[in-house]
Amino acid sequence: MKKIKDLASHALLMVKRELRSYFLLSVTIFLSFTFLLAFFLFSDSQIYNKYKEIFNVPPTIGVASNSFTINPMTGQIIERGMLQTTLKQNMLIEQLDKMENTQYFQYFSADAQTRYYSDEKNSVGIQMIFLPKEFPGFYTGSVNNFSYVEVIFGENRLNSPYEILIDELFYELLSLEQKSDFLSIILPLTDKEGDTELVEFKVVGIVSNGAGTDTITSESGHNSFYVSAYLSSDLISMYDMDHLEKKILINSEKIEEVILLGDDLNLPIASSYTLHMRANEEIRNRILLNGIAAVLLFTLLGINLYSSFNNVLKERRYEVGVKRALGAGGKDIIIQFFLEGMIVMMANVFTAIIVVINAAVAFKFIQKFFYYNQWIIYVSMQSIILFLVCVTFLSVFFSLVFAYQSTRVEIVKHLKSE
Q1: Domain extents for the chain?
Q2: What's the predicted TM-score (pTM) here?
Q3: With contact defined as beta carbons under 8 Å apart, do 294 and 142 qualify?
């Protein structure tokens, strides 16, 4: 043990003495490992952030809407007749009632542009969602996105047709005067005669940002806010709601059967299960891409390392010759050069990890403070394993090659040359 410790100390001393040679070698090692780790980290983070909202929703949610269908030839969303789809939705509900571990929730929604909360620089579009009196919280969704909506302040039920729940973004857009009153919201509705009137609603609660919540800023600096307001379904019989979109939100442990049932009815069902499958497929493709990149970099780095270690060894042939002439055994020389190689490799790997992590943190702050994006740093277990395999194999293999080559130095020839 003491001998190994002495050899390690001597190896570290030799690395310091040959710092210039090892520094040139380190440039190749550092850049290669930094690029490989950065590729894994930013690639995994990009795909994780792309699908983080989807994975926050269980793969059991589906939505059947009367506002869209999917062209089987092109996969594009197209419009279809409200009445025809509503009939098929009713047929779907009959089947859902017979399925175990399946719940569904119906709601109606309508879009409205209102100038009441808009000005020259900002415009507000409101998605009005008409709910039953009970509002325990539910998933809302569209073709490409699902989110959970829940009351975070106030009542979770609508006791009157003229009570309303608004989302967080809508609340934030209200002026201080309106917030201090916190009494009412005014929305445009069309009566049975076709006239639009402004109707006042009492705010009884705030819900988490959900359906329709978004903000778009144009190049001219104009802000378009899309918010949601939750109203009583009793209003449907009081006002003209023929243009309303009707959705059935489904939560089922047998969501695959529900999707097949929708296919049989020619009623497309957008589902979180389908989005999960697409996301997982892209993740698998990304893992394959990471593997290909690792193999290519592995090959290039191997060639560069072999050449770089050879250059270092050429500059130390005289040193090896002297040690052999003084009686140093081949085993001692192998251990020394192996330890030197491992010290250099590990130092560069550690430095590469520190640099990449700091770069990722800096990128996260840029996304947060300049683009208002909550970027999450993420590395998959597959990428970690792949990186560790590359690091371990390259470090051990080329340190051994370096050590073995040191024993092949022709002692007499290089002593004479000096």
Answers
A1: 2-55+279-417, 105-246
A2: 0.61
A3: no
